[in-house]
Amino acid sequence: MSKTPELVVRELHVSVEGKEILKGLNLEISKGQIHALMGPNGSGKSTFANTLMGHPRYEVTQGEILFKGQSVLEMEADERSRSGLFMAFQYPVAIPGVSVANFLRTALNARLSPSETNGSGAMPSKRGINPKEFRAMLKDKMALLKVDESFATRYLNDGFSGGEKKRAEILQMAVLKPEIAIMDETDSGLDIDALRVVSDGVNALAGPELGVLLITHYQRILNYIKPHFVHVMMDGRIVTSGGPELAHQLESRGYDWMRVKEVATP
């Protein structure tokens, strides 16, 4: 694991339409680590994920987000993605008429394009990956993730099941090779078989060059993806952190005991 965390969040305060959601959140993630962020509905988990990726609806009023030592607060979402941040969505949208393969090649070429083209619409001076090389790479990634090759010709998320949508997100992660991946409730809406397939994909990609922030309500996905750290988020901040055993405590005791603990803490 790297010594210096790639992602550093300090005293982050975020508001939506004037209402404060995040209230002083702190977190550090290094490549090679898997962090699980758990918490009840309305605790701010998805707000945090969207803020990390630069969604314009979320206003940072205080604090900082550093990625590889530099602030991302003035960076647009595409710039953050090019720099090595990635987000797998809870509810991926369908794009009829755009095949999975074409979408992935376009996204990869954008990821590989030099930073000076960010947001300008200019053609990058460096050409992207050539079609033959891309097809070979995509075939390898699909084999790694046990995805049928016919998947590449289908329109992105159009008519996909919940499990197929989440599998497409994992395939994007494999192709784009981010340094930090944020997975916003990837287990949402999955049956046990789809959950296992998606988890196997994450485990296949995990390693020293990837850090993962896995946001979830439930412990069940952590039966398949083993986190190094588990954090509990309540009322816009992380109230406690621990190892995998913390997730098991939450599974057996729920979040109420954590609320009682917070009230009892002076």
What does this structure look like?
- With 266 residues, the chain is of the alpha/beta class.
- It has a single domain, classed as P-loop containing nucleotide triphosphate hydrolases (Rossmann fold, 3-Layer(aba) Sandwich).
- 34% of the residues lie in helices and 27% in strands.
- It contains eight helices and twelve strands.
- The strands form three sheets. A six-stranded mixed beta sheet has the order 6-9-10-3-11-12, sandwiched between helices. Strands 2-1-4-5 form a four-stranded antiparallel beta sheet, covered by helices on one side. The protein has a two-stranded antiparallel ribbon with strand order 7-8.
- Helix 3 packs parallel to helix 5 (162-176).
- The longest helix has 15 residues, at 162-176.
- The chain is globular.
- 38% of the residues are buried.
- The mean pLDDT is 89.
Concise synopsis of the structure shown:
This protein has 266 residues and is α/β, with parallel strands linked by helices. The chain has helices at residues 45-52, 77-83, 100-112, 131-144, 162-176, 192-205, 244-253, 256-264; strands at residues 7-16, 19-29, 34-38, 59-67, 70-71, 85-88, 95-99, 155-156, 180-184, 211-216, 229-234, 237-242. It has a single domain, classed as Rossmann fold, CATH 3.40.50.300.
